[in-house]
Design goal:
The protein is 58% helix and 16% strand. The chain is of the alpha+beta class. The strands form four sheets. It has a five-stranded antiparallel beta sheet with strand order 2-1-5-4-3. The chain has a five-stranded antiparallel beta sheet with strand order 7-6-10-9-8. The two termini are 95 Å apart.
């Protein structure tokens, strides 16, 4: 409610005032002693208003309307408050329910756009909702006065409410629409409607006041008025029908209630007479509504048809192409201004002439007549017809005629519609180009480079044998293809952009890829130029050369260069690391050896220095062994020496060698499944030991806390070993490269762990030498798992 403006609230107040005025008028139009009233007038008015306004007004209007109606009826009528509330509830359910439900099932609630809309309105608003309202009201009246018959109350209420909504709600809609666009000119245009309404009033008045209450004559008078209602509906649509019927309904029902209308006689009470009249009126009103809506739809269709015809005429008169309509015998029945300009004739001069009147010679006339008869008899899909005509000034012009069939509303073939284009410039250019192509054809056909001629759409028009041989398709196949069928580098949009570039530069050179008939991709060097160009059509001539081998050679050279640079970089890095790795233990040996020469050191320090010297010697020896090992592996000098190996002993030796190293870093070291009894097999024990030692050393090196775990399993043909750690882990992008020589994953924060990067390379190459493989599973920061699989032969 807060979103409503002051103007919105003023509208709501005016709506409520209008409703109360109609209530006052309806309550005064009563007929004693039955107190028959026209209380359905404000209910129909309310529904019409609800259909007109936005839904955001519904709740605020309801809050103002309810207390206003209760207060009005409490002051003006003698009904008890509970009866007022029940009647009000029934009427609001009827009006609001009809408005909400109707707006949900139609596209435009403010007007009837189709017979379907009108049928939905009748079903929902005139039958269903009034039936609910009548049920509520009849039950309340029956409860208050048990002597009343429920069916009589229900029937009276239902017919009154339904009839009120039937014409009052639509009348509100269309009256508002009419007054919104009213003008003196519009009032004058409706003069016949005002005459019909005046005749209606005179007829009702005469029947009432001058026929001495003869109900039969009055009934004839009313039936005389119904044709006037139909005339109003046909002439002025729903507005005329509603306005005319409003006077008819209000006057005849009130007069009948007063005893001066049709069906008023001794055998019928005033209530029964009103009910019977309402039934007749409802039938006539519904009929007039459908007639009125049909009239509006016909007029709307005619208006659309006339507007379309005017627009088409405007298009025909302004298009640059000629448009011609001819009958089956070839007589021109319509020719637009462009067609006259093309042939040089004044406007309308071509009407009535045969379509072949301007043909250049008798052969052209006979050819066109034959083609026309072919279209009439066979009815094939027409193709572009090229012909030469004589203009009025005697000059020759070339025309392209695109035909289509003309049918009447019953589907009968009655003639042809043609679009005619002047192609003289294009024809002359083509002839000139053909002469030039014929001169160059021998050269093009014998060149070793491929030659392709295509139009502006990419359709291939000519190729030489070299291109056919290059692409794998024969000439006949290629002439049915488009460049887009062969191109794989450029998308259709990019091809269009390339053509625009060629148009701008007049020539271009670029590289691309085509797909051959055997699905092979080839690289092409393309030199292309424009041979012919006008406003919309041109040809593109291209010489293409296969550079697939050249491109492959270039790629190989680039790859070799990159590999050499990488190798050089690795060697430099290796020498740098090797210098550092060798110098470090040598410095330790030399330094602590000189310190041993001192006579002042005690035995404890001397033993410690000797231990450090031994460790440095071991480290230096290991470095030299690794360098010699990788060199021997690279040259293929190492041979496999299989020997009988007991698995339990092998694992014990592995544990003995590395458990102490792990404990020095406070790491938990364990071997799972190390008890294999007396299982033995043939394998190169030294190489297997070297593989595992390198993997375990690598795990200890890059694990600062946690564990090192060795897992062992046997299959029918392989020994499966894994080294698991809780170390720094390895990024996925380095999973393949860490097995390369002189390669390590670089720590993103600091290179705390040094080394030559040979351990994993030695492990992998030894595994390959034994016919096995090593794989890695690792995530950065979550540890690593190296899996080793080596073939074995059981004893």
């Amino acid at each position: 409610m807060n979103s409503l403006s002051r103007t919105d609230w003023q509208k709501i107040i005016l709506i409520v005032i209008g409703h109360l005025i109609l209530m006052y008028w309806a309550l005064n139009l009563v007929a004693p002693p039955n107190n028959i009233s026209l209380m359905w007038l404000p209910d129909g008015y309310l529904l019409g208003i609800l259909l007109l306004i936005d839904k955001r007004f519904y709740i605020p209007l309801l809050f103002i309307l309810i207390p206003s109606i209760i207060l009005f009826e409490f002051i003006y009528t003698n009904r008890p408050i509970d009866l007022i509330v029940v009647f009000l509830s029934a009427n609001l359910i009827e009006s609001y329910g009809a408005a909400i439900l109707y707006s949900l099932i139609v596209r435009n609630k403010k007007k009837f756009e189709s017979f379907s809309d009108l049928a939905k309105f009748l079903l929902l608003c005139v039958l269903i909702l009034p039936s609910i309202s009548a049920t509520i009201g009849a039950l309340m009246l029956k409860y208050k006065n048990p002597e009343l018959r429920f069916l009589d109350i229900y029937r009276t209420w239902m017919l009154s409410a339904g009839l009120g909504i039937l014409f009052v709600a639509p009348l509100s809609l269309y009256t508002f629409k009419w007054f919104k666009s009213v003008s003196w000119q519009k009032v004058k245009e409706h003069y016949l409607l005002w005459i019909l309404i005046f005749i209606e009033i005179i007829a009702i008045s005469n029947a009432t006041f001058f026929l001495e209450n003869n109900s039969h004559i009055y009934l004839l008078t009313i039936f005389f008025i119904f044709p006037l209602l139909i005339i109003a509906a046909v002439k002025y649509g729903l507005f005329g029908s509603l306005l005319f019927s409003s006077i008819l309904v209000v006057a005849t029902i009130q007069l009948t209630a007063l005893g001066n209308g049709p069906f008023t006689n001794e055998s019928l009470s005033a209530v029964e007479a009103v009910i019977k009249l309402q039934s007749y009126l409802a039938l006539f009103l519904i009929s007039s509504f459908f007639i009125a809506l049909a009239t509006e739809n016909i007029r709307s269709a005619n208006k659309i048809s006339n507007d379309t015809r005017r627009k088409l005429q405007l298009i025909f008169d302004t298009v640059p192409n000629g448009i011609q309509v001819n009958s089956l015998d070839g007589t021109i029945t319509y020719s637009n201004p462009a067609h006259h300009r093309i042939l040089g004739y004044p406007d309308r001069e071509l009407i009535g002439k045969p379509i072949w009147f301007a043909e250049k010679d008798k052969e052209g006339i006979n050819k066109l007549k034959t083609y026309l008869q072919h279209l009439i008899k066979e009815k094939p899909k027409p193709i572009a017809y090229i012909t030469s005509n004589n203009r009025l000034d005697g000059s020759t012009i070339w025309l392209e005629i695109n035909w289509d069939y003309e049918y009447d509303v019953r589907g009968k073939h009655i003639g042809f519609i043609s679009i005619i284009s002047d192609i003289t410039d294009r024809k002359l250019a083509n002839e000139k180009l053909q002469i030039q192509l014929n001169k160059n054809k021998k050269t093009v056909q014998t060149t070793l480079d491929g030659y392709v001629l295509a139009d502006q759409n990419g359709d291939i028009k000519d190729v030489n044998p070299s291109y056919s041989q290059l692409i794998g398709y024969n000439r006949r196949e290629l002439l049915k293809m488009n460049i887009k069928d062969l191109e794989i580098t450029l998308s259709p949009e990019e091809i269009g952009q390339r053509i625009q570039r060629i148009l701008k530069l007049k020539a271009d050179r670029f590289e691309t890829k085509h797909r051959t008939k055997n699905n092979k991709i080839i690289d092409l060097d393309v030199s292309i130029a424009i041979l012919e160009q006008n406003e919309s059509e041109f040809l593109l001539a291209a010489f293409v050369r296969d550079i697939t081998n050249q491109k492959k050679l270039t790629r190989d050279l680039i790859k070799a260069k990159e590999k050499a640079e990488e190798s050089d970089l690795l060697k430099s890095e290796f020498l740098k690391n090797m210098s550092h790795e060798i110098r470090t233990p040598l410095n330790g040996i030399l330094g602590f050896t000189s310190m041993l020469e001192s006579t002042s050191i005690d035995d404890i320090k001397k033993n410690r220095y000797i231990e450090i010297i031994n460790n440095c010697g071991d480290q230096l020896l290991k470095i030299i062994d690794n360098i010699l090992e990788i060199s021997a592996l690279a040259t293929g000098q190492i041979k496999v020496n299989s020997q009988k190996t007991y698995l339990t002993d092998f694992l014990t030796d592995i544990g003995t060698l590395h458990e102490g190293k792990a404990k020095k870093k406070n790491l938990k070291f364990s071997i799972k499944n190390k008890d294999f009894d007396d299982i033995s097999f043939l394998i190169d024990r030294e190489k297997l030991f070297k593989i595992m030692s390198n993997l375990i050393d690598n795990a200890i090196k890059f694990t600062s806390k946690g564990y090192i775990e060795i897992d062992v399993n046997l299959s029918d043909k392989n020994i499966l070993l894994s080294v698991n750690d809780s170390g720094t882990g390895i990024s996925k992008k380095y999973h393949r490269t860490i097995f390369n020589r002189f390669t390590q994953e670089k720590n993103s924060t600091s290179d705390l762990e040094s080394g030559l990067g040979l351990g994993l390379a030695i492990a992998r190459e030894n595994a390959i030498l034994l016919g096995g493989k090593i794989t890695v599973e690792s995530t950065k920061g979550e540890g690593s798992k190296f899996n080793v699989s080596i073939p074995i032969t059981y004893e």
